[in-house]
Amino acid sequence: MKIVYSINEDDIVAYMEHYSTIHTPEIIQTRKRNMRNIIIIVISIVLIIGYLIKSPLYNLISIFVLMPFIILYPFSQRSRRILKKQFQRSLKEGKNRELIGRKEMEIANTGIINKTPTGTQSTNWEEIKNIYVTPSHAFIYTSDIHYIVPKSSVIEGDWGLFISELQKRKGSP
Q1: What are the residues whose beta carbons fall under 8 Å from the beta carbon of 15, sequence distance 6 or more?
Q2: Is residue 87 over pLDDT 80?
């Protein structure tokens, strides 16, 4: 069974958003460290400004006003736009061009075979760690490669049947 599809910038952004929501211990630790650093920097700046203008009330009000923005920023739509701009910039620089474009994925007895214009990659069933399915994408995580299979960009094949067969072979729910 095989499926032919195309990946665009929005699919890459959807993957990056999905990856950022996975709660592995390493990711949680990195997020906590990054958030702590941001909070420390912002509070330090606010305190320095308060010290310079000699107003303790300014410090207190500023911290309470800024805190919700600091906490909610990573979850905003603005972060999606930033991810997309960063990826577009990397494409303009000539990086990650192989991620965009036509792909072909086939389910074989030994695993999955992914064909792109630049080459073929075989992945054994044991190497597949997780298969996450959202209403618009399937994300296949291995130890070193992650595959994106967008539902809206299928050129040939049935996305639903393909994903069901993939999950069945892997033993995923």
Answers
A1: 137, 139, 146, 148
A2: no
